[in-house]
Amino acid sequence: MKLIAGARSDVGKVRSHNEDSYLVGKRIWAVADGMGGHAAGEVASTIVTERLRAQDRRGALDLDVITHVIDAINEAILEHGRTHPAALGLGSTVSGIASTRLGDVRHWIVFNIGDSRVYRYANGRLTRETVDHNEAEELIESGELDPEQAKTHPSRSVLTRALGSVPGPQPDVLVLPQRRDDTFLICSDGLTSEVPDSVLLETLRDYQAPDEAADRLVQLALDNGAKDNVTAIVVAVRSGNDTDTPTEESVETTIPKAELQVLNEH
User: Fold this and answer.
1) Looking at beta carbons, which pairs linking 146-153 to residues 24 or more positions away fall under 8 Å?
2) Which of 171, 164, 170 shows the shortest CA–CA distance to 74?
3) Are 190 and 8 in contact (CB under 8 A)?
4) Measured in whole angstroms, how far is the alpha carbon of residue 156 from the centre of its chain?
């Protein structure tokens, strides 16, 4: 078995710069959507992905490691705001997955703070594995809004959890067994604001190659107006020459050349 990942990020049709950052690693895949105005949001999301990138290179992962690195990221963002007054108040979401071994069985760790999302596509079904940390989601849970109303409600933009806050936010963490033919979509809200879940499902079903799926999803958001930055990572488990669960050593990555150049500059 092997893991194959593809990614694409775009500034969108309205924004002047891209505050989204993403990580396509060997063990960790994540999207961060920065906030805080010009430059500050980009700095915050880059802090997130660079700290996760460093952890990805260190090797072993478990729930405690993921929680610890997220705490460290929150402190790093706060410290940047303290030492750069013009950027005070910067923050970021983070959503992602990590591949880990619990006992003798490989699992996924799904983690989330904010309103970026992780979806799992398997057996023809699409499941959202994360909960949006915004006021609209709380209104849905309380029965004051239905999901359709929440799509256009002003409170959907008001985050209730984000990195760069005091006290530090508690991440949602979910552990799932790795299964053959799993496909994960990790994305910023610039995608889900423009493309409904039904179309996400159709796209992941129709585009088997992760790079093609990521490219198509972002293009759909652009076609629909893309009022925000748009980022999508697609991570797929695919059958190889053996019957074992996927390993970090078997990861393949496909990123558009322009995006790859940006990553290599870090």
Assistant:
1) 151/193
2) 164
3) no
4) 18
Contact (Cβ atoms closer than 8 angstroms) between residue 162 and residue 77: no
Q: Which two tokens stand for residue 163?
A: 């990195």
| pTM exceeds 0.85 for this model | yes
Do the Cβ atoms of 197 and 180 come closer than 8 Å?
Answer: no
Q: How do the pLDDT tens digits run along the chain, 266 residues long?
A: 789 999 999 999 999 999 999 999 999 999 999 998 767 999 999 999 999 999 999 978 999 999 999 999 999 999 999 999 989 899 999 999 999 988 888 899 999 999 999 999 999 999 999 999 987 777 766 666 666 556 665 666 779 999 999 999 999 999 999 998 899 999 999 999 999 999 999 999 999 999 999 999 999 999 999 999 999 999 999 876 544 444 444 556 555 444 443 343 33
